[in-house]
């Protein structure tokens, strides 16, 4: 059970590391083959591009999980702590609504992409499977945001969400 919890708690980290490592390996192979053979590997560029896309979207969820999204807090710091929390909750609610909107539209595009498959040029895989990361991460991001609120409510530390903005 501890392994499942560890995988759940570190899912984005593991996936981001794997995607970035795959991208680095593909690009390194490309460099080696261009230097040694004089020509590159066609599939390595495509695979590195896809792994970069996956790393970016998984990074979005990772930032939400770590409460590390870019925020402009200068004006918020003028507000009392509870007012800051209300503004934070409102902006997070908007972010969740936007993410779910994109996720549901992404699912529709994924369905269409699987119904009318477009193959990637060199890897020969259905591009919809590569693009599935978009709705997945736009569902995962609001999940992680809500999870942070639930943890802080459970611990009785909800105000800590905005108190830390003063020091960071």
User: How many separate structural domains?
Assistant: 1
Low-confidence stretches: none
Task: Give helix and strand order, one letter per element, not per position.
Answer: HHHHHHH
User: What percentage of amino acids are in beta strands?
Assistant: under 5%
Judging from the principal axes of the Cα atoms, what is the shape? elongated
* Counted beta strands: 0
Q: If you compute it from the alpha carbons, what radius of gyration comes out, rounded to the nearest whole angstrom?
A: 20 Å
> What share of residues is helical?
over 70%
Q: How many H/I helical runs?
A: 7
> How far apart lie the N and C ends?
35 Å
What is the mean pLDDT?
Answer: 92
Oligomer: single chain
Largest sheet: none
State the secondary-structure class.
mainly alpha
Give the structure's gist in a few sentences.
The protein is mainly α. The chain contains 7 helices and no strands. The chain has one domain.
Characterise the protein shown here.
It is a single chain. The chain is mostly helical and 168 residues long. The chain has one domain (2-166). Helix content is 74%, strand content 0%. Helix 2 (11-36) packs antiparallel against helix 3, helix 3 (42-65) runs parallel beside helix 6 and helix 4 (81-115) packs antiparallel against helix 6 (133-155). The protein is elongated, with a radius of gyration of 20 Å. The two termini are 35 Å apart. The model has no long low-confidence stretch (mean pLDDT 92). It comes from Desulfovibrio porci. Its main location: membrane. InterPro entries: DctQ (IPR055348), TRAP_DctQ (IPR007387).
